Amino acid sequence: MFGLNGTATIDSEIIGWSGIDIPAYAMPYLILISSIRDQLRKQAQQKGPIHVEDVTDIRQKIRDSPSPDASETAPYKKVLDSALDSVTQLTASEQSTASIMEVADRIRDEDLWNLGVYLEDRADSPMARIRPVTKELREAKEAQQAKKAKKSIADRSRNLAKAPTAKDDKRMISPLELFKNEEYSAWNEDGIPTKDKDGNELTNSKTKKLKKQWEHQKRLHDQWQSQQQT
Question: What span, in angstroms and rounded, lies between the C-alpha atoms of 79 and 33?
Fold first, then answer.
């Protein structure tokens, strides 16, 4: 069942907390947000469905909990509301591991990151550690983004290099298919036409001309095939 950890309350400190840069008044919201994300990851791993009633308990806890200062807590409450809305939307859609993890990743990598908070997944615990975004974390993320952007550029360049040119397009055509069109109605075993579209035998001069074109195309196609194998 999707929801809060059974032993956790809105005042619980069971989720890892680190760093003086995170204000204490944000803690109740961050614990709930982290718990929601932990459960999303768990559901994705177990491939279990998420039900709309699963968020009711969390919404009730939000309504019942006093807010120290609406202006101070507003950014965290906004992220929490967004997380709950995303979960509700998931219940009304075809749920897949990818769609659930997309929400979980957005909560960590965008929503909370922009508030200076990072959820650190741990191999030894199903619960993420809540910690402030440090200089080292920012530098690591920037390096990762730069690496990803560099790979994307390299992939795009490689795809462009492989993209067939107009010349390649012509060379890619097999001589066996060169004359397979509506102008002709019969062909020999090499694909050279023997009759026109009306079923009339082609003249010797026409056949000779087509054979020269066929031989030229065969050379181009053979060259192209050889290049593809290197």
Answer: 8
Mean pLDDT of 96-107: 88
Does the pLDDT value for residue 100 go beyond 50?
Answer: yes
* Separation CA 202–CA 66 (nearest Å): 93
Residue 159: pLDDT band (50, 70, 90) is low
Bridge partner list, 130: 17, 119
Tokens for 1?
A: 């069942």
